[in-house]
Amino acid sequence: MIPFMARRFLQPFSYGIFLVALISFPACFHNASDGPSRFDASIKTADDVSQLKELETQLTVTPEKAALHPDYQIINNIAVPYIPEYRMGPGDVLEIVYHLKYEKTSDDYRLEVQDRISINLPYYPQYSSSVLVRSDGKITAPLIGDLNAESKTPMELAAELNREYKKYLLQPSVTVALEEFNVKIAELKKAITTAARGQSKIAPVSPDGRISFPLIGGMQVQGFTVAQVEKMINESYAKQVRNLNITLILLEIHYPKLYVLGEVERPGAYDIASVPNVLNALTLSGGFKKSGELEEIAIFRNEGLERPISFKVDIKTALKTGVALTNIKLKPGDIIYVPKTRIDERNDTIERIFTKGIWAVVPFSTSLGASYNWGRSSTQ
């Protein structure tokens, strides 16, 4: 029977055999099968190049084909890929350019809130006054009291004042003159005019998807196109200010993010516009490490779904066989995770157990030397 001390010193040999077995037989743990090749051509000769060009010609999208293809549209008799309009989101920055029109119009001016007018009674000057159109759209005239003025022309208001004053005076001959008008436009100009940009306003989309505008307040813009928001703003201003038109300029686009994690050189967040597919995401993240398992890349998705989903992509087989798995489109919020190969995971386990565990307490070289010396002393 081997003495107890001999068994203790021989134990490192058994650990070493176990380690060699793990490294020597990786195929026992993982055996990936290659799928069938789906390459459309194999280029070896000049004839092969000609055949490839012929294939490209056959597959070229013509206007006739585009009419039947939902991913294409025809513009000026040219087939171009269909690209949906960009819809705004938090972090985008807009410039609102205000165009105030001063050209002559055939329409009479109509009174607005905050306009100031003078009411003149030439034969009864004691009743003449200067009044302001209040926020309720009314004015207060001497002798007759409150009267609605908002949205009336000066002549229409003068005619109504004459009818009211005739109840008390003979031949009042009332006239109405504008003292201060277009007050809202003046206020708007103060709010939007800057020395650097003129009559415009820089407006970032807030995290809740809204933008605040002078006079009309906040408005939800997330999810709308630029043209839709421009129309909404002009309609809102038309209720407040006449002779005004705005133009929207999209200055900055803050695309939503996706995330590349795991065995890549530069894990982190990337703009979705820069990485429309899986292969682009791996390229922008610096490529995968040697320890990356390319046959089981995991993608986690939750955007717009009732519940999160996850799926795997075999990039290695796709690149090797020509299968277009690398063109899988990514969505905002996607998480792409490149796991470690199984042998690397085993190596990490071995390192934790042996290098940082048992062997840190009983070094392999010391144990081996002790066993060897013990063997020699026992045979002498």
Report on this model:
This protein is α+β, with helices and mostly antiparallel strands and 380 residues long. Among the domains are: 93-104 and 184-252, wza like domain (wza like fold, 2-Layer Sandwich), CATH 3.30.1950; 116-180, wza like fold; 257-342, Outer membrane lipoprotein wza domain like (Outer membrane lipoprotein wza fold like), CATH 3.10.560.10. It is built from ten helices and 18 strands. The protein has a five-stranded mixed β-sheet with strand order 15-14-18-16-17, with helices on one face. Helix 1 packs across helix 10 (364-379). The relative contact order is 0.12.
In short:
The chain is an alpha+beta fold and 380 residues long.
Topology of helices and strands:
Blueprint: H1 4-24, H2 46-59, H3 63-66, E1 72-75, E2 78-81, E3 93-100, E4 116-120, E5 129-132, E6 138-141, E7 145-148, H4 154-165, E8 175-180, H5 183-192, E9 193-194, E10 198-204, E11 210-213, E12 217-220, H6 226-238, E13 244-252, E14 257-262, E15 268-271, H7 278-284, E16 297-301, E17 309-313, H8 315-321, E18 335-338, H9 342-361, H10 364-379
Parallel strand pairs: 14-18
Antiparallel strand pairs: 1-2, 3-10, 3-13, 4-5, 4-8, 6-7, 9-10, 11-12, 14-15, 16-17, 16-18
